[in-house]
Amino acid sequence: MIAIKVENLTKIYKLYNQPQDRMKESLHPFRKKYHRDFYALQDVSFEVQIGQTVGIIGKNGSGKSTLLKIITGLLTPSAGSIIVNGRVSSLLELGAGFNPDFAGIENIYLNGTIMGYSREEMDTRLDNILAFADIGDFVYQPVKTYSSGMFVRLAFAVAINVDPDILIVDEALSVGDITFQKKCMEKIDQFRESGKTIIFCSHDMHTISALCSKALWINDGKIIEYGNASSVIASYLNWMSESNLKLNTVKMEDMVHYIRNSEIVEILNVDSYDNFGKKKKIFLSGENILFNINYKALTEIINPIYSVILFKIENNKRIPIGITKTLYSNIKNTGIIKDEYDIGFTFVDNQLNSGRYILGFSVWDKSHRISYANNITCEFDIKSMNIVFGPTEEQCCFFPDVQWLIENI
């Protein structure tokens, strides 16, 4: 059975160069046009079956949030139709659905009313909401006084305790601390196992691949691909890497030890070693691979997160097969950094087939959610007598067993 059916959905915004142009257009006797049309969504069609968990992926500004707001009824489409079967609970960007002047407790009942619950029905859910949010007496204070973390705690607690048929989450969990994010993901897993329909929008490919059976990739308001989550993620990551390389006019044959720096991050050196500290570029499957990246932060980076992506080269094409971040390993490298650093990480007992691989490394500013470098850093080879892991264009995996070592030089 269908939970959500979207057909030929289009959303157009009128963009004006200056505020008074809107008034000029409305009063002009000959209906002169002062705006230009911006298609946030264009002819989007897809279906979500009851009980499916679908990830929405795409770069910033691609139309993901607009699509989710239309599904939840916060926006009206310019054209097309949408059918939603079941009660929807959503956690969109901070502030959506909450009155900032109301206390947290008042917003709980307000959201319950919007969902169609009586005050008596919300009374029965209140204890669970308060226990999950765990914000203490702040629940009696206006939400405009909340930190972003407190706000998302309350918003998520309300969203998952009103017994929805469809749960929609749009990136809001990224502002919570790691412990609360884990708590939320466990609850989402319970929802999924109980047969609820979930739409999960995120830039975190690991979470999407672990949580979702299907993924929808949207770009510039149009659906690029919709299908098996691993396949769509692989296509998206490969497209992202190709886009970054085109910006720097890098050829495949020039990528042996290519480093792209930014005005913020300068990567000085990348080396790979075996378990005995011997520098080399060829490894056996099952062997530990130690990488050391020496980089310099030219200006301040707040709460840095380090991420690694692994590509396999097949038929002169890069296939993304692995991605991980320090965030996934609960590495707490908070604070402000500015200086030279060594980042060490080990792929423990690598389970890779014979072939050539490329390592990518990025530095993220957690507070501002900015990537300061997305680099193809070095190549290495794997030799294997047996087929251990066979990445294809339909596969994208996560390397959970990575050990990190971060040192300020």
The count of strands amounts to 20
* Helix amount: 10-25%
By DSSP (H or I, 4+ residues per run), the number of helices equals 8
Low-confidence parts, pLDDT < 50 over ≥5 residues?
247-260, 388-395
Strand order across the largest sheet: 5-6-7-3-8-9
Task: Give the structural class.
Answer: alpha/beta
Question: Could you give a short account of the major beta sheet?
Answer: 6 strands, mixed
Radius of gyration: 24 Å
Q: What percentage of the residues does DSSP assign to strands (E)?
A: 35-45%
Shape: globular
What is the H-and-E element order?
Answer: EHEEHEEHHHEHEHEEHEEEEEEEEEEE
State the end-to-end CA separation: 58 Å
Mean pLDDT: 80
Describe the structure in your own words.
The protein has 409 residues and is an alpha/beta fold. Helix content is 24%, strand content 37%. The chain has 8 helices and 20 strands. The protein has helices spanning 20-27, 64-72, 104-114, 119-133, 148-160, 178-193, 205-211, 229-247, and strands spanning 2-16, 35-49, 53-57, 79-84, 88-91, 166-170, 197-201, 214-219, 222-228, 265-273, 282-284, 289-297, 301-302, 304-314, 317-325, 336-337, 340-347, 355-365, 370-383, 402-408. The strands form 5 sheets. The chain has a 6-stranded mixed β-sheet, sandwiched between helices. Helix 3 packs across helix 4 (119-133) and helix 4 (119-133) crosses helix 5. The relative contact order is 0.12. Mean pLDDT is 80; it is low at 247-260 and 388-395.
